[in-house]
Write a structure and sequence with these properties.
Helix content of chain B: 55-70%
Oligomer: heterodimer
CATH architecture of chain A: Orthogonal Bundle
Radius of gyration of chain A: 18 Å
Strand order of the largest sheet of chain A: 1-3-2
Structural class of chain A: mainly alpha
Strand order of the largest sheet of chain B: 2-1-3
Distance between the termini of chain B: 27 Å
CATH topology of chain A: Arc Repressor Mutant, subunit A
Number of strands of chain A: 3
Helix content of chain A: 55-70%
CATH class of chain A: Mainly Alpha
Number of helices of chain B: 8
Strand content of chain A: 5-15%
Largest interface: A-B, 36 and 34 residues
Largest sheet of chain A: 3 strands, antiparallel
Largest sheet of chain B: 3 strands, antiparallel
Chain lengths: 134, 205
């Protein structure tokens, strides 16, 4: 799992670009956490592993638990401790009705936002591709 | 892999520090949070080639992790509280998160300063009767407490009525500020923006 380290700055990007990238990832974590639970119930470590599969969602692991706690307090998630037959008990989370509705709204907003932004930055991406081709 | 005695000690130290830094909350909530973090560490430590140091590093410093819970808890408590002190602390936290929060914080400070100031002058009127009041005259509308500085035709208009008027107005502004900010905090909890500086702080990156 890629751990972002503020002291490790890519000299090509510069510190502010690196920070922006990290903020972008962390800023979308609330939606990503809800989305990870869309298909069913998961516990904290499983959500983290799901994020590991999507390398763009790199985070330190401690970030996820306060988000889960906040989402639960807001009524978007429900949780339950389940005793494992072997090993440790696990606290499973799942989306409530309000959580599913919030996630749908977030997903629509995100899609619209990224489409508009994608349209704006398309010339930049194309110029970048041409640079790489040369 | 079961953690060694030395690793267990590191885990216990981390959890002890985490517990100390957690905000005040019902014991059951606190225990549940600690239990969840504890299970995370111990289950991660059972993975092949797992390192407790690496697991704790990934979690971030115990005080930073606890402060994430503390910030949310503070805003949660303030949204259900009538304590001006708690509300000011919560809005100070919001002010650290962005421009909107800063505007809210300044509004709260202004509201409480104005309301509290009126209440204070109402209480001081019996002690400084000549220096406290509402002065009205050509181009003058002044109220509060200061040395007498106006000559006729400017004059103090309320007399002892200043006490109930200032008390009522001061109470109204304190209530209005408290009510307004509670509504704001509840609304902001329900419509948390996608990009919230509370989440995108650098503490845990």
């Amino acid at each position: 799992m890629k751990i972002m380290n503020p002291s490790a700055v890519d000299p090509e990007k510069g510190q502010s670009a690196e920070r922006w990238e990290q903020q972008l990832r962390k800023g979308s974590l609330e939606m990503a956490t809800l989305a990870a639970l869309w298909t069913g119930r998961l516990y904290g470590l499983e959500i983290i592993r799901r994020f590991e599969d999507s390398s763009q969602l790199a985070l330190t692991e401690g970030t996820i638990y306060p988000i889960l706690s906040r989402l639960k307090n807001e009524g978007l998630l429900a949780s339950e401790w389940v005793e494992a037959q072997a090993g440790h008990p696990r606290k499973y989370y799942w989306l409530t009705g309000a959580g599913r509705a919030r996630l749908k709204h977030m997903a629509e907003t995100w899609t619209e936002f990224s489409r508009e932004l994608g349209r704006l930055i398309r010339p930049v991406i194309e110029a970048r591709k041409e640079e790489v081709m040369k | 892999m079961t953690p060694s005695r030395e690793q267990e000690l590191k885990i216990d130290n981390y959890l002890r520090k985490f517990r100390q830094c957690l905000p005040s909350m019902p014991i059951a909530d606190q225990e549940e949070i600690i239990r969840e973090i504890s299970v995370h560490i111990r289950e991660s430590a059972q993975q092949p080639n797992a390192s407790v140091d690496e697991i704790l590093h990934r979690l971030g410093p115990a005080e930073n992790l606890a402060s994430e819970y503390a910030q949310d808890r503070l805003i949660e408590r303030a949204s259900a509280s009538f304590s001006p002190l708690l509300i000011v602390r919560a809005t100070l936290e919001l002010a650290r998160r962005g421009v909107e929060g800063l505007a809210v914080f300044l509004g709260v400070i202004t509201g409480y300063a104005f309301g509290g100031g009126l209440l204070l002058t109402a209480a001081l009127k019996p002690i400084f009767p000549r220096q406290t009041g509402l002065w009205i005259g050509p181009g003058v509308f002044d109220f509060g407490i200061h040395e007498p500085r106006y000559a006729a035709p400017v004059h103090e208009v309320l007399g002892w009525w200043y006490i109930p008027v200032a008390f009522w107005l001061g109470s109204f502004f304190v209530w209005l500020t408290t009510y307004g900010i509670r509504r704001f905090l509840r609304r902001s909890k329900q419509s948390r923006p996608l990009f919230n500086r509370g989440q995108i702080g650098m503490n845990h990156i």
